[in-house]
Write a structure and sequence with these properties.
Blueprint: H1 2-32
Keywords: Membrane, Transmembrane, Transmembrane helix
Transmembrane segments: 12-32
Length: 33
């Protein structure tokens, strides 16, 4: 059960990181155009 929560945490972390990068990228593109 412990492994399950560790993997879940890793997946959530990657997901949040990806969303953050996308948000920054979109913001950057809007600044340029």
């Amino acid at each position: 059960m412990q492994d399950f929560f560790e993997e879940l945490g890793a997946v959530l972390f990657l997901l949040l990181t990806g969303i953050g990068i996308c948000a920054v990228y979109i913001h950057f593109v809007q600044l340029i155009s």
